[in-house]
Design goal:
- The protein is an alpha/beta fold and 189 residues long.
- The protein has one domain: 3-Layer(aba) Sandwich (Pyruvate-ferredoxin Oxidoreductase, domain 3).
- The protein is 40% helix and 24% strand.
- Strands 2-3-1-4-5-6 form a six-stranded mixed β-sheet, sandwiched between helices.
- Strand 4, helix 2 and strand 5 form a beta-alpha-beta unit.
- Helix 5 packs antiparallel against helix 8 and helix 6 crosses helix 8.
- It comes from Clostridium thailandense.
- One of its GO terms (molecular function) is oxidoreductase activity, acting on the aldehyde or oxo group of donors.
């Protein structure tokens, strides 16, 4: 059985790093894993997506429309943008965080309202304020690892040695902070 995880966000949020940590953990646990990433103008705050598929034998890294078991959105408008990729019985984990795109900043578009309510009306949705929890831990940059913790808990992947993955892949001075962020994310779901 192949599981598909779609991570979406805005450039600079650490979406790709979270997916690489996730992929590393899944491979070390013995899964066949395929990962694909798209950086679309990520340097300028554009949309970023990463697709992680794992199981006994994965043929393709690409998640088709209606194929994701879970959609994890690092920014709430991105959840709406990518919602069609979620399976009918899938789950959305959304960071209750807003980043205005260039059209919004330029006054050419409005940021959608009541995004979380719209998502909740359509699919099983868990909203967390990863940014706030990251700031409480002392560094807003660990919001991505909080969301990684939410993925791990949502997909029942707690048996993997995530502490080892963090220790092996994060700069030593940030290991303890990232371990706290991971635990925080797991406790929020």
């Amino acid at each position: 059985m192949v599981k598909s995880i779609l991570l979406v966000g805005v450039g600079g949020q650490g979406t790709i790093l979270a997916s690489k940590l996730l992929t590393t953990g899944l491979m070390e646990a013995g899964y066949d894993v395929k990962m694909s990433e798209i950086h679309g103008m990520s340097q300028r705050g554009g949309s970023v997506s990463s697709q992680v598929r794992y199981g006994d034998k994965v043929q393709s890294p690409v998640i088709e429309i209606g194929g994701a078991d879970i959609l994890v959105s690092f920014e709430k408008m991105e959840a709406l943008r990518w919602l069609e990729y979620l399976k009918k019985d899938g789950k959305v984990v959304v960071n209750d965080f807003q980043i205005d795109s260039m059209p919004i900043l330029a006054g050419k578009a409005d940021y959608p309202t009541e995004i979380i309510e719209k998502l909740s009306a359509k699919v099983k949705t868990v909203a967390i304020d990863a940014q706030k929890h990251a700031e409480e831990l002392g560094n807003s940059k660990v919001a991505n690892v909080i969301l990684l913790g939410a993925i791990i808990k949502s997909m029942e992947l707690e048996k993997i040695d995530w502490e080892k993955i963090i220790r092996d892949n994060v700069k030593p001075k940030f290991v303890e902070l990232n371990l706290k962020a991971l635990e925080t994310g797991m406790n929020l779901v």
